[in-house]
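>> received
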Amino acid sequence: MNIKYPRLVIAGTNSGVGKTTLVLGLILALKKQGLRVQPFKAGPDYIDPSYHTYVSGRHCRNLDTWMLGQDAVLELFQRSGRDCDISLIEGVMGLYDGIGNQDKGSSAHLAKMLRSPVILVLDSRSLSRSAAAIVLGYKKFDPAVDLRGVILNNIASSTHYQSIKSAIQKHTGLPVLGYLPKDKSLVLGQRHLGLVPAQEKKPQDVFLEKTLKLVEATIDLKALLAIARSAVDLPDFKPRLFTSEVKQNRINLAIAQDAAFNFYYQDNLDLLNHYGANLIKFSPIKDRQLPKDIHGIYIGGGFPELFAQELARNTALKQEIFQRAKSGMPIYAECAGLMYLMKKLIDFKEKSFPMTGIFDAWVQMGKRLAGLGYVNIEVRRDNILSVKAGKTRAHLFHWSYIKGLPRRTNFAYKLKKKNRQPIMDGLLKWNVLASYAHLHFAASPKLAKNFIHHCQNYAKKK
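>> returned
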């Protein structure tokens, strides 16, 4: 049965045009009207969703058309959007920027998949009538994209706004629905992986209050709501993720969550819970011991390099994790988690800090990105997530690199990227899998199910 869901894709002409700030303001303004707002983020990013979650009070969900495919995207969107009044989907990069020179993975691809109206955000600094030419190009580039309006950012004055607005509306026929002024205080803090996650540094109240007031004063919220509510029915899809819940033999899975480790797709956590895991949070920075009666550990991405001293000082927890690993407890670690399981971590200042020592090697922070982009995974060895010869898709985004690996290191994965040499990834030892690749379990639900199965086997042996 087709159901309508009020929704908008907030896309940009390019990265850095102010999409996140605008979406935060829209969430706040719509919530103030008493509306339930469900945020989504196109693509694999972890950090922007942390801000959406903070201001909306609802978990932001990632919708990645390259990793997941249409049925999974539609199921995840419907599952989180069905009980809200409007869904706001922040785009990734520029509207048409996908994988290489493809549509797949772009905000446009997602908008077409969701049959969602699109609002284009344009950075208007140093522009006047030329803004109309830019918007006209975006309108004509792919007529299948339902581009319905424009919002301008970095407007210098009311005269500037009226000049650009009249040019865009005259030459494109698209309505200009408002603007945000040129104001340095509206910029969120950044560092080497992008914005500072909201879990670590919450946006200041003065920033949120100012953004809210500006959006209420300068954006036509009534027109935006009308466009969102005009969205047509979602396409039909076949649910395959949240279908049969495991009710017996549930296991307890410890999840590392604090300022150092907070990169998790919420749908990954939901799938683990749905398939039989009780999720128990712990902090590798603060907790001196693991939660009681656990059968597995999941350590996600984040910024261990910025909290290396605190992590290193927590000797008791590091030793316990090492002993649990040695006993055969299933442990899955992604990116930052991999770094934490090494013998030592060398930060940007080349200071060395001891980590858990499960793997006899070390990681060092680089001066530039060491891995970035989507990859295809070929499984070379059986592991706690997958069996040999399995395939899935993933995303890389890391500044560190591994040094000193023993020659006989076992790797679970071969990572393939177009026009690049394959990369070995996925360190294996005991029942531990540590990888730089970020996985979305909705791309292959068996990954989550296999992890839980190994945790159940561990529980039986205790």
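>> The radius of gyration is 23 Å.
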